[in-house]
Amino acid sequence: MRIGVVTFPGSLDDGDAARAARLAGAEAVRLWHGDPDLHGVDAVVLPGGFSYGDYLRCGAIARFAPVMESIIDAARGGLPVLGICNGFQVLCEAHLLPGALTRNQHLHFRNRDQWLKVEATNTAWTNGFTPGQEILIPVKNGEGCYVADPATLDRLEAEGRVIARYINGNPNGSQRDIAGITNEAGNVVGIMPHPEHAVEALTGPSLDGLGFFTSVLRALAGSSAAGSQAGGQQ
Amino acid sequence: MTQQQTGPAISETAFAATDVLAEGFADSPDTVQRAEQSSDDLQPYADLGLKDDEYAKIKDILGRRPTASELAMYSIMWSEHCSYKSSKVHLREFVAKVPKNTRMLAGIGENAGVVQVSDDLAVTFKVESHNHPSYVEPYQGAATGIGGIVRDILAMGARPIAVMDPLRFGAHDHPDTARVLPGVVAGIGGYGNCLGLPNIGGEIVFDPCYQGNPLVNALSIGVLPVERLQKKEATGTGNIVVLLGARTGRDGIGGVSVLASATFDEEAEQRRPSVQVGDPFMEKLLIESCLELYDAGLVTGIQDLGGAGLTCALTETAAAAGTGMRVWLERVPLREASMSPTEILASESQERMLLIVTPENLAAVLKVAEKWGVWATAIGEVTPRAEDGTPGRLLITWNDHVVVDVPPGSLADDGPVYERPLREPSDLILLQADRAETLPRPSTGDELRETVLRMAASPNLCDKTWVTEQYDRYVLGNTVLAQPEDSGVLRLDEQTNLGVALSVDGNGRFARLDPYEGAKLALAEAYRNVAVTGAQPIAVTDCLNFGSPEDPAVMWQFAQAVQGLADGCQQLGTPVTGGNVSFYNQTGAAAIHPTPVVGVMGLFDDVTRRVPMGFKSAGESLYLLGETREELSGSEWAWVTHGHLGGRPPKVDLAAEQTLGKLMERVSQTGLVSAAHDLSDGGLAQVLVESCLRYGTGASVTIESAFVQLFSESAGRALVSVPQGHEQAFVALAAELGVPCARIGVTTEAATLEVTGQFSIPLDELRTAWSETLPKLFGGPSFAGLPTEEPAAEAAPAPVAAAPAPAGEAEVPQIRSVTLELIEPKAQEPDLP
């Protein structure tokens, strides 16, 4: 299985995402922001960082990169896409996910080891977890406060599209403690904390982050067994 | 290249004054031709910080008066910051006493020292000051401090892999500290986080002596394949001089000679234009493009532009090679078209590098720059030496006017050197006689308990999470240990687990009481912090923060500290690989405590054997290593409970530090200990507090003469936690190496810190005391209980398509980079009905 990791100018956790994909057993394929070719990858990770400096609204410029046009099309066709931190912001800006990430309520960048409770496990990126499972993943962001209008929040909850919530403290003021969400089809997931920083005992607070990457491999294996097109880039 | 300062009363308006001279005729700058014709014209050299004899020497070198641009260049390059004119004679100690070491690939005089760590890999690291700008404009001052040290690392051919920041502020409760500290911390985070470099440690110290002169030091470390080591020499006649990175603007003009080379006065707030403005995104692109250029073998020579900007980079690269250089200044991409040649040469705009490339490689270099969206401009070429073999000249034109024609070596190497007068501070004898050992002490268990809590909550010993949470410590995925651990530990190689440990320490109070011993104590502490993690200390970098060198007492402190550090490094076998001197940390007659800050790097053959500081499980034996003496002078206890500073600092025994280090390396190889924590500020009491609170594991200890045992700051000590079954082996190994070793207690199931027969403190109570201090001082809304309910419906942000107002960065003025081409926006298609 080949997992593509996009590098925008200003991407910072792209190497970490590629490492996590490798540790999960996938082949990591580096994708360049200016190249619309997805090189036949089976899934894509939009990594953390400050794409284009994020001097404008976070992710607002990255959303228009040539590679994003291909990813947006492919995601609508079922390609599994995981946006982490800045990647989550890009997915919201690209309208693949609803809502927006705004400045942390306390106005500081914050980096801490964060407990999350997993909710939706029927997505391409969370099927390896059990509902209610508590996991420890580093969070680090300056603009990670998830906001949406109440109707959207109600709908996300009613449709089971919240994939994880912050527990034991909300690090950024996100509404309803939302740490990550998915789209209706369950192939596109955005999460503010960084699973790619919790994949090795030596460097992470846990190994819980690996579950996101093994989940997508399982989803891809399942879909290819079922003869589905879900993983293919068109 | 590094540093701070010159003489008195320099005003940045002097640069404007040179321009007046330069622009006497419209569009016609002061040229060499005109200088030859008007050699006796008065020039504002004194306003630029040059002394009468220094100006005379310039005229002597040139055989005429300097042009306005030349005058600015000499004033910058001969400033204290760039020329080390006051410190040079003392810094020779480091070279004279450098221990034999086959690992050194580059040392003092380079952008940063380079140390070989394996057959293939080398590490480069350096600590530098950005004190003065950070006082004037805390956010940008601290941010560009990170940017500057990172470019030094980059210029050696290394990929920067982490930063650390030793910070010192005035009194914790002074209103100005509430201005400076949050800005500095946000600046370090804002720049370092955006650059993608983990921040793995540092120091935060409060002391009224730093009021008005905060110390903002920044350390960076990088790693490189040995063969990728870069040179700064502008070799090869006909090679092209390329300016890479941000465009040049009016920011930071005269930063080194104006800000960093004089003491502050009441006009400090008017100096904001002298502070550079950072763009971390541009620096990230600069890093990636430079590394791609190195790997493709396209670079002949490289130098970063920092303090002294283009002036420094042009003269140093040419002087190092002995070649000449021809530069067309109008080719430099500008932010403001109206900049004069003097301003272009003096600008300290950030995120720029100067490359020397062969003509054949130029196209490939420009292509890499284009890929990363970075400006790259050929601004000149390397010219030959004179026919008689003497070094070439630096010839700079601006729109066909010759504005500079100088021997580059006269700027870079032939600056003035001063043997400043030295005199022991007149109050030192009295200060040393006023010993803290005679102060009243807590005597009962209750008093001891209260003292432990009070100390834990004191600004210098309390939990620093409020600061460190604002830094990314995870990015790059190789951070093995980070603050609050004793050292930052990084993995260098995922295959072999080769790694390094880094610690940076200083103690201004100890150095005030005895600068020679104080410098050695700083070295000993950093060495010990690295050693307790199990790493083998191998190299040193230093940032020497002092008052005005024109004060003989300050100069004496400086000379003593350099001597102490050089002697210490010689004895420990750890060479000083590079560093920085910061003078003029002084307001009026009041200098800061002499504050040598020392960074030590250690090596792990296998970083998985690192020893962390926290107690993880109950039932382990606690051993105190080293000898505890009644040493309270200069201690945190004397300061917190009595506001006292006097006496003599603790004794330093570097041989004992080495033995302790050897023991720690051995036990980490054999897995005999589960935790180890160095004893320093606050003594054993603070170590117990920190090691218990790290993972919430209690401890019970039994000690004679509890007060001295708890609060003495004797050097050469560590506390280790030994799992059951390993005690005998551990004690035997300590005895074999001759490290004093006493079993003082155990880790416990009970979540309390207990000193038997004296007191017991529940960890919850301890944690509250320890962790509340900084949020209360600087935190604004409490960190613990953020409201998580969405706002009332009418206040809620509009739905998806109309994203909320531009988030964030409001208080963060940033220069936007406009070098990237925007893709035409397409119609938006919200995925919600």
UniProtKB/TrEMBL annotation, chain A:
Gene Ontology MF term list: ATP binding; glutaminase activity; phosphoribosylformylglycinamidine synthase activity
InterPro entries: Class_I_gatase-like (IPR029062), PRibForGlyAmidine_synth_PurQ (IPR010075)
GO cellular component terms attached to this protein's record: cytoplasm
Chain coiled-coil ranges: none
UniProt keywords, alphabetically: ATP-binding, Cytoplasm, Glutamine amidotransferase, Hydrolase, Ligase, Nucleotide-binding, Purine biosynthesis
Location within or outside the cell: Cytoplasm
Keyword ATP-binding: yes
Active site feature: C85, H194, E196
BP term (GO), one: 'de novo' IMP biosynthetic process
UniProt pathway: Purine metabolism; IMP biosynthesis via de novo pathway; 5-amino-1-(5-phospho-D-ribosyl)imidazole from N(2)-formyl-N(1)-(5-phospho-D-ribosyl)glycinamide: step 1/2
Catalytic activity as recorded in UniProt: N(2)-formyl-N(1)-(5-phospho-beta-D-ribosyl)glycinamide + L-glutamine + ATP + H2O = 2-formamido-N(1)-(5-O-phospho-beta-D-ribosyl)acetamidine + L-glutamate + ADP + phosphate + H(+); L-glutamine + H2O = L-glutamate + NH4(+)
Source superkingdom: Bacteria
Gene3D superfamilies noted in UniProt: 3.40.50.880
NCBIfam families reported for this sequence: FGAM_synth_I, PRK03619.1
SUBUNIT field: Part of the FGAM synthase complex composed of 1 PurL, 1 PurQ and 2 PurS subunits.
Function description: Part of the phosphoribosylformylglycinamidine synthase complex involved in the purines biosynthetic pathway. Catalyzes the ATP-dependent conversion of formylglycinamide ribonucleotide (FGAR) and glutamine to yield formylglycinamidine ribonucleotide (FGAM) and glutamate. The FGAM synthase complex is composed of three subunits. PurQ produces an ammonia molecule by converting glutamine to glutamate. PurL transfers the ammonia molecule to FGAR to form FGAM in an ATP-dependent manner.
Protein name: Phosphoribosylformylglycinamidine synthase subunit PurQ
Organism expressing this protein natively: Actinoplanes cyaneus
TrEMBL record, chain B:
Catalytic activity: N(2)-formyl-N(1)-(5-phospho-beta-D-ribosyl)glycinamide + L-glutamine + ATP + H2O = 2-formamido-N(1)-(5-O-phospho-beta-D-ribosyl)acetamidine + L-glutamate + ADP + phosphate + H(+)
Binding of Mg(2+) 1, residues: E128, N580
Coiled-coil annotated residue ranges, if any: none
GO biological process: 'de novo' IMP biosynthetic process
Pathway: Purine metabolism; IMP biosynthesis via de novo pathway; 5-amino-1-(5-phospho-D-ribosyl)imidazole from N(2)-formyl-N(1)-(5-phospho-D-ribosyl)glycinamide: step 1/2
Domain Phosphoribosylformylglycinamidine synthase linker: 42-85
Assigned EC number: 6.3.5.3
Active site: H81, H130
Binding site for substrate: S129, H130, N131, H132, R151, Q276, E348, S349, Q350, S582
Annotated localization: Cytoplasm
Amino-acid biosynthesis in keyword set: no
Residues of the PurM-like C-terminal domain: 237-386, 618-756
Region annotation (Disordered) ranges: 785-808
Descriptive protein name: Phosphoribosylformylglycinamidine synthase subunit PurL
Gene that this polypeptide is encoded by: purL_1
